[in-house]
Structures are given as structure tokens and as C-alpha cells.
Design brief:
homodimer; five-stranded parallel beta sheet; 14 helices; 56% helix
Chain lengths: 276, 276
DNA sequence: GGAGCGCTGTATCGTATGTTACGTATTTTG
DNA sequence: CAAAATACGTAACATACGATACAGCGCTCC
């Protein structure tokens, strides 16, 4: 039999437990898994047994230390929380059609990403991007540079001084000389994080440039220098990570910035139309 | 304002935090709430700051001790776990403002787009793209070229002869000479449809090139030449159209192609790793 | 350019926590 | 029914964890 969760492990062995440990097991199952994350003292009090009984209980489950037991519980929780997809797999009845698992994962990623993103954060970033006293630079990594490109293409229409840094490293590295405190640098960087980008971000940060970072949930090292960090979920059933969540956040920001610059932007757009 | 979760509390105050504490906040949000349940040492290591910074961070959130902060997180988790419904109910309250419509619209667009897209269609296109007897060309319009670039970056890794047509029109127009019956041309074109792309597609079609078209629900005129048409929903409450649906379809195809070329692709990827 | 303030990390400290030894109670077995 | 074995709790112990004092540093504002 495949034991995948501590709960299963318990129900598997609860029959072979002495009375005290069984009470521990039952209280853990009843408030699974929260009691297990608290201290031994609290756990024992909730179960109405002594602390050593709790320790003997986790030892019987095969753990060396109590912290080890707690870590396992936490990882279990992490798996549940971070990939809501697993829940939909557990309850396969919701939408009968054989829809693409890729789509399902992406929808979850989007919801999760935005759940961790407040309106205020987005508004702050949009305000920063719409601030026309400084310049805006955008750059991305190997797979994410198209996102930078996409965002730049839109932003450049509603305001001046938007630059997509592309091409050879030596080229965009030298653009650092144009960057100062009033400027914003938008960086896209997901695993595997690129050294060149990190170095670039560090230097820019030292020059006082405000960095807006689009990254994955494991946070690029650039987060250390960033003024604003957007952490998107990237996990999908594929050999590649998905940048869809970051893409949608980018579109959302594009929309917000455009709205803020509406008055001036409309004028610009009319001028642009005239140029064709 | 009603603060009901620590996540809200953080996003409310993150703007007024010094750099180190902000990094703590960002890592907590990115792996919410699991990092917060671990020890101060682990939390600080994950955030790349020192332990006192973590303690100052939780103090700023209004907690007296670190354990008090952890208890609050645990209770939050308990509430979520015991009634999964509350989880979805929390969602609108957390970002019920101006952002949600954008996300909601995008989610709808994704569902609608895939609803009109059969597994078989996707499989057919993937098979066509994975066919290595011919070359694959990708090109996009003004705002969609980044999508072509994104797709090309991935496809070029798992197979040879993938070319992203970019730069000046005269440059890629001349590449027509390399295209024949066994080749595939992937075109991204949404409103306002670009004449240059339409002409390009027509000529390619006359040369017998297989065209895969990514367009919006109103169908670019290129559709009449295309072997496969993917019509994505693009309507969002913004001044711009959304390419998110097309982006996700592209990612799905990338995944499918990769899976088909798994055997050879793995070898290629190993070779590529060796080149670094 | 200098003085003051605020932020951050290092090192130290006290304590809460997990752990263990041992004695008592309870059950099991011949 | 007696004797042994197992189970359980009390109490002492050691560790590791959170908390704090302090010094260095960068930043801002005169």
C-alpha cells in the first residue's frame, strides 16, 4: 500500500496503538493537521495526555524527532495549498469534460497569483510606471523577454521614454549610464535565474533605479534589490514553466497605466494615428 | 478598512516598510503562509535577511511575539481548511476592487477559448509542429509578435529548424524563398489586422506552406489561407485587447510538442546543457 | 560636507521547547 | 492469583529557539 499522507499512515496503524497514543492520534485526525503544528505541550493538552506520550506517538509513526514530524506535515500542507490542482484531481466530478489539464493548471495559477496580489500593490506599481518624470526600461530573461517586449510595446504608446532592452548583453548593460533615481526598471526573471540579469539588477539598484520584478513563486535573487515584487505561479503539467500568470499581470498593469494616463494618452494616440 | 487576514495586513503596510522587512513580506506572500509557520531562522534564511529583521517585521505587523504571529497564521489556516468554501469566499474580498474585472474577464476568455477548441484540433496542430521533416516559421503582428517570439524560443530547443521572423518587413518577406510544402508558418494576428501580414500569408499559402493562425474571435482575413485556425477571446475591460488566451494556447501547444518529441528532445536538451 | 537618524546584521542572553530517565500504575500471562 | 511486562506520567535535563543589546553603515536633511 502506498502511504502518501500522515493521515493515512495514522489510520493504518491506529489499531496497533496503546490507549494514550490512540487518543493522540484521534485528536490529530479531528483537527488535522493543525494540532500537529503546535507545540508538544499544546498537543498533549488537547489530547489530554502527557507530552512523552505525544513523542512516543510520533516515534511510532516512524519519525526521529518531533520537528521532523512537523516538517512533514507542513510539506503536506504546502502541496495542498500551493497546487489547488491537486484538489480538483481529488474531486474529479466538477466539470465532466476532459478539458486540458494544462488549462486547469493555468486557471489555478492565475487565481493563486492574483490572490496574493492586492489592488494596492498593483495600483502602486501602476502609479510608478505612469510617473512620467522618469524613464521606463524593460528587460527579460531567456523565455520571459517576450513578455517585456509585449509590455513595452503597449506602454510605449501611452507615454514617452519607454525602452525595451534587448539584444546582446554588452549593449543593454551600457544603457545603465542613462538610468537614475527617477527611472524604473521592469525585470522578468523566472527559473533558471540568469546571472547576467542579477548583476544588471544589482548595478541598477546601486544607481538608485526603482526595480519592478516579475518572477516565480520561488523568487529570483533579484527580489533582494526590487522595490516591487510580483510572484506568479508557474507550475503546469508540462516540461516547461508557464509564464501565463505573469503575462496576465502584465496586461492588467498595462490597462491600469493606460487608464491613469488617459487624458494625455488619448492625445498621444490621436497624434500617433495622424502619423500613419 | 476591514483587515481579515495577515496577507491583507501585509499588502496594506508593505509600502511603509524598510527594504529588509519588505523582502521578508515578499517571501511570506510568495509562499503564503508556510514560511511563516517555520522557525525564525528558516524564515530569515529564505528571505535572505537576518533573524532580527524577521522579528521586527512581525512586530511592525502588530504582533507582540513571533509565536503570537504564528498562532494567528495557524488559525487562519484552520479556518480555511475546515470550510473550503470560505476559501473561495475570501477571494473576492481580498481583491474585490478594480482589478478583479480584468482577472475575471481573462478567466472567462480562457474558458471560452478552450471550449471552442477540441483536443483533437490541438493534437493535430501539435503533430504538425512536431513533424521534423519541415521547417517551422513564426511571425506576429505589432502586439502579438512577442507571442511568436515566446513560442519560437521554446520550440527551438526541442527541435531544429525553428525560425522567428522578426525585424524589417523586407527581411522576413525574403525568407519566403526558403518555404515549401513541408514547412509550417505560425502567424499571430489580431485586430487591427496588418496588411503586410495578410499579404505575407497569402504568398506563403500559394507556395503550399501550411499556415497555423492564432487570431481573435473575429478572425483575421488570413483565416482563409490557414490550415489551422485558433480563435481566442480577447475582450477585457481595458483600452487594449488581451492576448492572454492565445498565450495559453501557445503554451499548451509548446507542452504538447515537447511531449511528442520527448525522446529526441531529451537528447537535444542534454546536448544543449553540454554546450554551456 | 557634516551631523543626525534609521535600518540592518553580529553576538549574546534567557527561556520555552523537545527530550530522556525513572518510578508508578495498569494490564497481561503463566 | 502472582509476577512480569508494558504503558503512562512526573520531573529533571539539554538544546535550540526567539529575544535583545549594540555597533556599523548608509541615507537624509541641514
Amino acid at each position: 500500500m502506498m502511504i502518501s499522507s500522515i493521515a493515512e499512515l495514522i489510520s493504518d496503524r491506529i489499531g496497533a496503538m496503546p490507549a494514550g497514543e490512540r487518543r493522540a492520534a484521534q485528536t490529530l485526525i479531528a483537527n488535522y493537521p493543525l494540532i500537529g503544528l503546535k507545540t508538544v505541550a499544546e498537543f498533549s493538552a488537547a489530547a489530554g495526555v502527557s507530552s512523552p506520550t505525544i513523542l512516543r506517538f510520533v516515534a511510532r509513526l516512524g519519525f526521529q524527532h518531533y520537528p521532523e514530524f512537523q516538517s512533514t506535515l507542513q510539506n503536506e500542507l504546502a502541496a495542498q495549498l500551493q497546487s489547488p490542482a491537486s484538489r480538483t484531481l481529488n474531486t474529479p466530478s466538477q466539470n465532466g469534460g476532459a478539458v486540458s489539464p494544462m488549462l486547469e493548471a493555468t486557471l489555478d495559477n492565475l487565481r493563486e497569483t492574483f490572490r496574493h496580489l492586492s489592488d494596492k500593490q498593483l495600483a502602486d506599481i501602476a502609479a510608478r510606471l505612469a510617473d512620467r518624470r522618469g524613464k521606463t526600461f524593460l528587460i527579460g530573461g531567456r523565455f520571459t523577454d517576450p513578455l517585456a517586449c509585449y509590455m513595452a510595446a503597449h506602454l510605449a504608446i501611452v507615454q514617452p521614454n519607454v525602452f525595451h532592452l534587448t539584444g546582446q548583453e554588452s549593449v543593454w548593460r551600457d544603457r545603465l549610464i542613462d538610468m537614475g533615481k527617477r527611472d524604473v526598471l521592469v525585470i522578468f526573471d523566472i527559473r533558471r535565474y540568469q546571472d547576467s540579469l542579477v548583476r544588471f539588477a544589482e548595478t541598477a539598484h546601486q544607481r538608485g533605479v526603482q526595480i519592478v520584478l516579475f518572477t516565480d513563486q520561488w523568487l529570483s535573487p533579484i527580489a533582494r534589490f526590487a522595490r516591487h515584487v510580483i510572484a506568479g505561479r508557474t507550475a503546469v503539467p508540462s516540461a516547461w514553466d508557464s509564464s501565463a500568470a505573469l503575462f496576465v499581470v502584465a496586461e492588467t498593469l498595462i490597462g491600469a497605466v493606460t487608464r491613469q494616463l488617459e487624458a494625455d494618452g488619448a492625445k498621444r494616440i490621436r497624434e500617433l494615428e495622424g502619423l500613419r
